[in-house]
Amino acid sequence: MSKAAAGVPAKFDCPGALPYGPGVPPARLPAWLLLGCLTLLAACSGGGSECGPARVPTPLDHAVTGRITGTVDFQGPVPAMTPLPLSGEPACAAQHSGPVPSGDALVEDGHVANAFVYIRDGLGGRTFATPTEPVTIDQRGCLYEPHVVGAETCQPIVFVNSDALLHNVHGSPTHSPAWNFAMGVQGGTRTVRVAEPEVMVDVRCDVHPWMRAYVGVLDHPYFAVTGADGRFTLADVPPGDYVIASWHERFGTREAKVTLGPRETTRTDLVYSAAR
Predict the structure, then answer these.
(1) Which of 216, 257, 219, 221 is nearest to 238 (CA)?
(2) 52, 116, 139, 221: which could form a disulfide with 216 (CB 3.0–4.6 Å)?
(3) What is the pTM (predicted TM-score) of this model?
């Protein structure tokens, strides 16, 4: 039987999405095509940025630094989350006890989870050493964990596949090289680096299109991702005037101006609402 007769696209290009669609769910692709996809993506994919020499950090007087704290809140009725379409992928659905919500509107007692909070402006020309400790993103249960994460420019970002399934990690930065590679071995890892700041870098799986992660990449360490309580803390911040920003995949962005004195702790809350 020919590829066309089997209902499978006869051609696909690299880099790009795997050949699935409404008529060809990934779980029903024949073994020869899955193997071909894996080989093709491994051969022609990128691995993120090539980073140059280590940055020379600006001296920081820790005796006068302070903290910026607060919460990210939501006012009004919280929009509903739709369940992810895992039922069409038995190997994915079997790893969960029931429907899995999309996770794009996690609000508890008015507090927003998975908001990326960071200093958007005010650090001037300060530079900071690149961390060597990696940021890890796991593929588990056909989901990316964590869903929202932060990293510094050129910091290692390690993708792990904890599933006994073929996944594909497709990162699409705007200001740095993209990457697109398959991960078909349980326990396998791949490392990328992103050279230029960007809020946010979209990461997806072309095999399981509901799999999304968002990586906030900055050239400084002052960022946080809120948990269920909506809280954030930016520590060891030099005194100054700053713009604090919040990014959320569904609710958008919010900003606030903050003045931080020597050894101070300053609180600012960022609020989303159903009306906006």
Answers:
(1) 221
(2) 116
(3) 0.84
